[in-house]
Model the fold of this input.
Amino acid sequence: MQTAEQNASLWPSGVTRDADSFMHRGISAEQLAEQYGTPLYVMDTVDVAERARSFVQSAREAFANTTAHVSFAGKAFLSKEVARIVSEQGMYVDTCTWGEMQIALAAGVPGRRLVLHGNNKTDEEIRLAVEQGFDKIVIDEPGEPDRIARIARSLGKRARVMVRVTVGVHAGGHEYISTAHEDQKFGIALLPAGSAGSVGADSADGVATDASSAADASSAADDVQSTAFFDRVAHGPAVQTLHRVLELGDDLELVGIHSHIGSQIHDADAFIAAAERVMVLRRAFYATDGYVVPEIDLGGGYSVAYVPGDASMDVKATLERIAAAIHEDSARAGLPLPVVSFEPGRWIVAPAGYTLYRVGTVKRVALGEGRSRVYVSVDGGMSDNIRPALYGAEYTAEVVGRGALGGASDGDSDGAGRSSGETVQARIVGAHCESGDIIVHDIELPADIARGDLLAVPVTGAYGRTMASNYNQLLRPAVVAVDDNGSHVMMRRETVEDLLGLDVSE
Ligand SMILES: Cc1ncc(COP(=O)(O)O)c(C=O)c1O
Ligand SMILES: N[C@@H](CCCC[NH3+])C(=O)O
Done:
């Protein structure tokens, strides 16, 4: 069942647009570009706070009979300012590397509100998490309980841990962001090797998916309630790892079971299927070890709309459905409700951000049979947004400023007759030495698009800056925050001095 908001807005709540203007809380796109330069990530921090508050509130309402925690997945976007904003709305922060831990700590988020993930954690990362009293360290492989216990013992502390389980629900916008099937690097299998029980759930958001239909998820969910499934779970690797954590109880406190099935998931059934499987594991572990796992964490993955007509996950409705499944299972088993936690990243920040680019070369390429395509080159590209190249992700763009730099284009357009209403079939490409450096594959743009025009690409608040690179030695763009007090630099633009500063050869 789809639980989605249709035609979600692609722009932050503070943006108002009409044919002639693009205003962001009283500042025009052209003003932002002139003041801070391009390419530029713009983040509406009021919107970030509103989205964080709304997710936390939905979780608290859906789980009114128990406790709900929501962690912000810092991999989506992390700066000290955003860490503080989401913390103020009651969120914890989920980190998975030394760098993410350092930023969250530097923001002043206390360890008791931090989570550490990672399929290949270093001893230093584990040590820092234990020293700082992280709320959870999420175990990702069967050898990790012993490693974490050893480090905790050496520090004279007890580490709070969760065990991450691959529940066999295959969901997510792309193979690379789907994480709960067995044949990938994350987590510990729910079921013994060779055991049937994987289901597919679709996301279909314009990025390719190899998953099967949502109907599979619900039919398999029935099977999940069978004694045979329960027995297989009771003999699976996940139960064994939970058991090992209990054996190391002097050094480890078993806080919970974790499941993250993937990212950019449109189909709420996938979350329900995953929650049901986690609850079977909780029951199976109680049956074998008599321990009531206090918390379950269902990860992130809530979808957003990237292009017009896309749906975005209706978080409130989905959390209510998950809550119903968890209540039902707990009641059936006669176990107390667990604390329930979530780790959204994209849903909190993606629609709050957009990228401004200045148009450079405009070139018409003949495709044969009288057809042509206009290649519109901008001053950024795959180094500030790798998602189209990596996942085939779709974006859209709008012209939000005209010709600040002046000058004629390199193509047919000479800057005359602007905004005539005519459009051309265009492709927005970056400045990299790479033909796959495409930001928007197919888009209609004004026929008079020209050098110096300003383009805005919406929904780049997540996995843009955090996945940015220096390919071709492009300088990573600044992130500018816009709120009701105006705008300010949240993360400065990289400089040539930064590049040369890293190159320490004589
Ligand atoms: C463990 C974990 N939690 C949370 C997230 C956040 O996912 P999303 O940004 O799709 O909400 C991810 C990324 O997929 C993840 O790997
Ligand atoms: N980076 C991915 C998703 C996050 C994967 C994290 N486990 C994206 O841009 O969609």
User: Anything to note?
Assistant: The chain has two domains: 117-344, 351-502. The radius of gyration is 24 Å. The chain is about 30% helix and 25% strand.
